[in-house]
């Protein structure tokens, strides 16, 4: 079907999207997962993008992970990035109650509104558990909200890397268990995911569709 020129070196390509308020640590989590390092990142402008190859469940996977800006002013930019995503990671900061509240008031609604895969797997992530003494959102609350939304749930720390690997692995394993998402990850996605306009660093020049 495709040209034999560049045979894919992976079994599936999955598109994952990271969403949540600004400052909850989405970029730090992504960096921790893709390059095993930690940095306090400045807020993302528009959308950032990283690729990671992993072996999960005996399959070679290429993960295209989109890290969206949490600020209100970039909200319209991110709607098109939900398109075709097999997994969505909703991140909150366990030391900031508002970031947790906004999950139900803003982010979960966005997923329902913009997601094009009805079987899209959602993962709820409570970040910054290394700041246990500053915690204001309990693990029990996280579990309860995840149940309500039909999400997977995990708490982690981008800083100490606790559970970061597990977060992405559990999400990907669940996608591998979902036939409709597998079908999408094995065909057209390989060709067209990179046709989506790559985000410009300057929000004013970014294209939303």
UniProtKB/TrEMBL annotation:
Family stated for the protein in its record: Belongs to the small GTPase superfamily. Rab family.
Source organism per UniProt: Juglans regia (English walnut)
One GO MF term attached to the UniProt entry: GTPase activity
Lineage, broadest ranks: Eukaryota, Viridiplantae, Streptophyta, Embryophyta, Tracheophyta
Keyword Chloroplast: no
CDD domains assigned to the protein according to its UniProt record, in alphabetical order: Rab18
Protein keywords: Cell membrane, GTP-binding, Lipoprotein, Membrane, Nucleotide-binding, Prenylation, Protein transport, Transport
A Pfam family this chain is assigned to: Ras
Membrane topology: Lipid-anchor
Record SUPFAM superfamilies: P-loop containing nucleoside triphosphate hydrolases
Matching PROSITE patterns: ARF (PS51417), RAB (PS51419), RAS (PS51421), RHO (PS51420)
Cited InterPro entries: P-loop_NTPase, Rab, Small_GTP-bd, Small_GTPase
GO biological process, alphabetically ordered: protein transport
Any one of the GO CC terms: plasma membrane
Job of this protein: Intracellular vesicle trafficking and protein transport.
Subcellular location: Cell membrane
Gene3D superfamilies for this protein: P-loop containing nucleotide triphosphate hydrolases (3.40.50.300)
Name of this protein: Ras-related protein RABC1-like
